[in-house]
Automatic annotation (TrEMBL):
GO cellular component: chloroplast membrane
Key words of the record: Chloroplast, Membrane, Plastid, Transferase, Transit peptide, Transmembrane, Transmembrane helix
Protein's name according to its UniProt entry: Homogentisate phytyltransferase 1, chloroplastic
NCBIfam families attached to this UniProt entry: PRK12887.1
InterPro entries in UniProt: AtHST-like (IPR044502), UbiA_prenyltransferase (IPR000537), UbiA_sf (IPR044878)
Any single Pfam family the record assigns to this protein: UbiA
Annotated family: Belongs to the UbiA prenyltransferase family.
Superkingdom assignment: Eukaryota
UniProt keyword annotation of Transmembrane helix present: yes
GO molecular-function terms, A-Z: prenyltransferase activity
Residues passing through the membrane, by range: 141-163, 184-206, 212-230, 242-262, 274-296, 322-340, 346-365, 377-397
Length: 401
């Protein structure tokens, strides 16, 4: 009977270990064969929802580790069954390795701020398509050049958002406690290693590609992203609401549209620098959108910003006023987009851009009216909705002709 219990523990359900130890006969057998230093084991087994790892003489959970001393380094054996508890160590090793990998990937996913990663990727794809003049331009050279720009930009994106988290650990413990540095999943040294590595990788990739527009895109992003976050004299520009908004506007609205378009236009296609009507529209529209993102991102973070002296527009003007300023700015941008679309000489472009922007404007208004501004959860959800509108715009921009 007891040997069957041990077999069940080692093969089918290892987490039954705590329950098994509460069977009197089995527990007494283990107590009879263990060393004196093993007595804390009972205390661990009484705690609910803990993970156990039995590797010969070691029992660990997330907070405790009890190790049998050297002279007793033998496998736990159930006296009446004679079966070792470590009968299949490879199963546990594989499971622990998989858990470690998934935990690391989950933490890195949150560290990279995925909504910014998606936004960067979509914006570069969209702007790259603006450089396409004929169907034959969609060649392997086009896709290679676009992929080089995306990877280099994503490396720089992770540097920027990571540096911001390193500089804001105490603030994020209030505003975003789920981030790896704020929660303690990553140490500060780990964060510094990650951001340094990705900044180096970004510029290394540029050195391989050799595109000067790409170099300027990465360099300006690096300088502004560093000045925005790092806490040094004359820097940490995020403390000024106006300067912080200008940093985001320059990177998201100007650098992304102009520099990456020139990368495709001059470096990939070898054509002279010339800004078309869609490129000018994209830059102007995204200027509005970048200001909205710069303003809106501080609305859910008002509590932490106020505590740590960040004088954002939300802290100064209040959540409700800034919220409706953002809505008004976006509605103005959509009105301009509808006018630009209606003036197109291509019927298909006119139809798609007018109808598409009309739908987005309607969705924005309906969601804004139904958002409870006293709920941080709803405000944060609406902020993510703003990013979805941002993604949707980059799907419409290549169709503006």
């Amino acid at each position: 009977m007891d040997s069957l219990i041990v077999g069940s523990f080692t093969r089918s359900n290892p987490h039954n270990f705590p329950a098994a130890l509460h069977i009197p006969s089995l527990r007494n057998s283990i107590q009879g064969s263990r060393c004196k230093e093993w007595s804390p084991l009972e205390g661990i087994c009484s705690v609910k929802y803990q993970r156990y790892l039995v590797e010969g003489h070691t029992v660990t959970d997330q907070k405790k580790s009890i190790l049998c001393p050297t002279n007793c380094r033998k496998r736990l054996v159930v006296a009446c069954g004679g079966q070792p508890l470590e009968s299949e160590p490879n199963v546990y090793d594989s499971k622990n390795l998989w858990n470690s990998v998934t935990s690391f990937l989950d933490a890195f996913y949150r560290f990279s701020r995925p909504h910014t990663v998606i936004g960067t990727t979509l914006s570069i794809v969209s702007v790259s398509l603006l450089a396409v003049q004929k169907l034959s331009d969609l060649s392997p050279v086009f896709f290679t050049g676009m992929l080089e720009a995306i990877i280099a930009a994503l490396f720089m994106n992770i540097y920027i958002v990571g540096l911001n988290q390193i500089s804001d650990i105490e603030i994020d413990k209030v505003n975003k406690p789920y981030l790896p540095l704020a929660s303690g999943e990553y140490s500060t040294a780990t964060g510094i290693f990650i951001v340094t590595s990705f900044a180096i990788l970004s510029f290394w990739l540029w050195s391989v590609v050799g595109s000067w527009p790409l170099f300027w895109a990465l360099s300006v992003s690096f300088v502004l992203g560093t000045a925005y976050s790092i806490n040094l004299p004359m820097l940490r520009w995020k403390r000024s609401a106006v300067v912080a908004a200008m940093c985001i506007l320059v990177v998201r609205a100007i650098i992304v549209q102009i520099a990456f378009f020139l990368h495709m236009q001059t470096h990939v296609f070898g054509r002279p620098a010339a800004f078309s009507r869609p490129v000018i529209f994209a830059t102007a529209f995204m200027s509005f959108f970048s200001v909205v993102i710069a303003l809106f991102k501080d609305i859910p973070d008002m509590e932490g910003d106020r505590i740590f002296g960040i004088r954002s527009f939300t802290v100064r003007l209040g959540q409700k006023r800034v919220f409706w300023i953002c809505i008004a700015l976006l509605q103005m941008a959509y009105a301009v987009a509808i006018i630009v679309g209606a003036s197109s000489s291509f019927f298909w472009s006119k139809l798609i851009t007018v109808v598409g922007h009309g739908i987005l404007a309607t969705m924005l208004w309906r969601n804004a009216k139904s958002t409870d501004l006293s709920s941080k959860v709803e405000i944060t959800s609406f902020y993510m909705f703003i990013w979805k509108l941002f993604y949707a715009e980059y799907l419409l921009i290549p169709l503006v002709r």
